[in-house]
From TrEMBL:
One of its GO terms (cellular component) is cytoplasm. GO terms for molecular function: aldehyde dehydrogenase (NAD+) activity. Coiled coil: none annotated. This is Nucleoside-diphosphate-sugar epimerase. InterPro entries: Epimerase_deHydtase (IPR001509), NAD(P)-bd_dom_sf (IPR036291), NAD(P)-dependent_oxidoreduct (IPR051783).
Amino acid sequence: MTNGGTALVLGATGGVGGEVARRLQARGWRVRALHRGAAGPERFDWVRGDALRASEVAAAAEGASLIVHAVNPPGYRRWAELVLPMLDSTIAAARASGARILLPGTLYNYGPDALPEPGEDAPQHPLTRKGRIRAEMERRLEAAAAAGTPVLILRAGDYFGPRAGNNWFAQALVKPGRPLRSVTNPGAPGVGHLWAYLPDVAETMVRLVERAPALPAFARFHMAGHWDADGTEMAAAIRRASGRPELPVRALPWRLIALAAPLVPLFRELSEVRYLWRQPVRLGNARLLAALGSEPHTPLDEAVRATLAGLGCLPAG
């Protein structure tokens, strides 16, 4: 797939969707961004439309050779009702336009039976509602690929980055928009955890798109990302970035989150994926290296410093 085509991005105002859209545009792609409200700050071709309305997605995708499906319900609300219909709209639009679908994948579709090092083709037996939806998304995409619509999926660890939205870093480890007073660590002592810097994820996705002609119709890849071997390195990097080695590190109050889960949708979602913090989960990137030769990898301290600055957690200058 050559540069300079048209890409439709669903979720361009979000973390991964925005990062991918900006990189595509920098590579010469024309980026259309579907959005229900007013145009965003980026210089994309903003198209008013709803990802739930198949006709509006299809109209926006006309002439596109790539559809980036990075849209999610805001605030983890109504996942069971909205996620799969939105994906169905994308699949129908891609089928009509002949576009390839690009999906940012997660670890949630893996159950404990596939851990600690699931392969790209490992069985998906999730235990959570969100995981079951994620697994069904991939099943539908694989069926679409078998019917002639090419699909590309990139799975990675927990996202962090200067423009990231709903993720563990911004919602648990630190408080965006506030000076750092402490760091919260959701993990169990000594348990490794996998992180993915969003600019690296987006760069990896774009490089895979550029090599799309050499990929199978249904292609899945894993990123190695940033492996925190004992669950302490991310907090240490935040301390270094803040210049405060004495910054307190506190455990996440999982018990309180579980008690509030019935009333707070976010806490319910966090509680369901606690198993990913209780045991190490690591992704191998051999398939990715075979396709790209290397994996984009920003040094951890640089990535954390940029993330904290973007979240408004560091003093100006």
